[in-house]
Write a structure and sequence with these properties.
37% helix; single chain; 17 helices; binds flavin mononucleotide; alpha/beta
């Protein structure tokens, strides 16, 4: 497996070639990002409430040797567009939607290797309960759980959790930092690996001297512990993140082991990937301890005509209104501005009104007009990695991008379920394998080992979670006397 890259990142050179990784970009809902496609007769998205929708998908992805299924999530409705959620509801834009964590055990039950990267927000629910849920999932999946850390951008989400408006952008990342610190204490520091002794003769299930309170008292959270879950295979799940602002990227460079990179074109992806790796090094981490993924639009057919016919069909069904409702979810209603308004004026007006326009600024370059931005939002082929063609043509494009950007892999965007993944597994995977770019079988047990190699089920010493290993840096009390004392008593 040999994708080599030429980019230097001003740090230690890449140690070994690695296979290209693929995740399926998913969400527990009808319309994630391909708005309008739910009406296609071959699309089964409306079956997302059924367990066998998820188990069939998991089997298919494992057959295609995917790294993971990546489950996006939001905790509010997109009600910024035209002043309400009507468009989002009509077009099924991420509503109705279900909890992403709850489908994971079912998918894990029918697979042995596939990873699960699910989204959970650090802004609205305190950390203790999520620490427990994540550890439970890591146990039930035997170490295949990853967490996509988000800070949530929907104003409606804030109103669902008792706040009048969104928490300010950089404050959300400050909260996230403390949130992760609490989780690391619980996951890494609260229990020793050998705490569970299951000693029937002495009637001791867990040795209390090997379990400790974490006694976290911070600016925002107070959590005593101990963690309620015994150590899971990975302890800390694989941390994914997708921030693109300076605060978001700095957060990723500290914590993330997988980053979903955004960008406008190949050059911007290359620069962002290099920046993330540089910042990781500045944090004392190996630049390749952060895997980087871009979104991929892949429409493949046995012939070019076949692929183009599919692309035309998708373009025809794609719904501008759905994309506008999605883009307006950040709170900026572009439809409210005349089309010739400069985006720089829109962003200034939104900032003056105190609305968080970070997300909009990213979506629409500030150098054009509202009309330009609307056209960009509704363009069917939006997303810089866009490959339509035969397996050979698609894999040529993948190979070129990986070599030029230093990306580690892609999140495959779906147009049809299961059609997009079926096409990829049936047509693209064999061509990737033929060129030696892709695994031919799974070799590792846990998700972290899949990304970083056998023997790496736990975070490396350079990751901030590692500082709490064995109860170090906690200053916390053990919950009780030693096993020996108990046995003697
Ligand atoms: C590929 C990708 C997937 C994302 N998935 C989610 C998601 O599921 N839920 C969510 O609230 N935000 C999601 N985001 C938004 C990011 O978490 C982040 O807020 C956004 O990229 C803006 O960056 P910033 O937070 O640094 O401003 C995603 C972003 C990208 C690029």
């Amino acid at each position: 497996m040999s994708v080599t890259t030429t980019e230097a990142v001003g740090a230690s050179p890449r140690r070994e070639p690695r296979p290209i990784g693929f995740n399926l970009f998913e969400m527990n809902c009808v319309g994630h990002i391909s708005h309008g496609l739910w009406v296609h007769p071959d699309n089964t998205r409306h079956r997302f409430n059924d367990l066998d929708f998820w188990t069939s998908e998991a089997r298919l992805l494992e057959e295609g040797l995917f790294d993971a299924v990546f489950l996006a999530d939001v905790i509010g409705a997109y009600d910024g567009y035209r002043g309400g959620p009507e468009t989002a509801l009509r077009e099924a834009v991420q509503i109705p939607s279900n909890d992403p964590l709850l489908v994971i055990p079912a998918m894990a039950a029918v697979t042995q290797h596939l990873g699960f990267a699910a989204t959970f927000s650090t802004t609205y629910e305190p950390p203790f309960a999520f620490a427990r849920r994540a550890s439970t999932l890591d146990h039930l999946t035997k170490g295949r759980f990853g967490w996509n850390v988000v800070t949530s951008y929907l104003p409606n989400a804030a109103r669902n959790f008792g706040l009048a408006g969104e928490v300010e952008h950089d404050t959300r990342y400050a909260i996230a930092d403390e949130y992760l610190d609490v989780l690391y204490k619980l996951w890494e520091g609260s229990w020793d690996d050998d705490a569970v002794v299951r000693d029937r003769d002495h009637r001791v299930y867990t040795d209390p001297s090997k379990v400790r309170y974490v006694d976290h008292v911070g600016e925002r959270f107070s959590v005593a512990g101990p963690h309620l879950v015994q150590p899971s295979p990975q302890r800390t799940p694989v941390i994914f993140q997708a921030g693109s602002s300076p605060a978001g990227r700095a957060f990723a460079a500290r914590h993330a082991e997988g980053v979903f990179v955004g960008g406008y074109d190949l050059a911007s992806y290359r620069d962002t990937v290099a920046d993330i790796r540089r910042q990781a090094v500045a944090n004392g981490r190996d630049p390749y301890d952060v895997r980087t993924y871009a979104m991929a639009v892949v429409i493949v057919g046995r012939t070019r005509e076949d692929a183009e016919r599919k692309a035309d069909e998708f373009a025809l069904l794609s719904r501008a209104e759905g994309h506008l409702a999605h883009a307006g979810g950040g709170g900026v209603d572009l439809a409210a501005y005349p089309p010739d308004t400069l985006m720089s004026d829109v962003l200034a007006a939104e900032a003056a009104a105190g609305r968080d326009q970070t997300r909009q600024a990213r979506f629409h370059r500030a150098d054009g007009t509202v009309g330009d931005a609307l056209r960009e939002v509704t363009r069917f082929d939006r997303g810089p990695f866009f490959a339509v063609g035969t397996p050979t043509q698609v894999v040529d494009a993948i190979e070129e991008w990986v070599a030029a950007t230093d990306l580690d892999g892609f999140n495959l965007r779906q147009f049809l379920t299961p059609g997009t993944a079926e096409d990829f597994v049936g047509l693209v995977v064999p061509e990737l394998q033929r060129r030696g770019l892709y695994r031919t079988r799974y070799e590792e047990a846990t998700l972290r080992e899949r990304l970083f190699g056998a023997g790496r089920a736990r975070v490396p010493d350079t990751h901030p979670a590692a500082r709490y290993r064995g109860g170090a840096n906690l200053g916390a009390r053990s919950v009780a006397s030693t096993l020996e004392e108990l046995v003697e008593a």
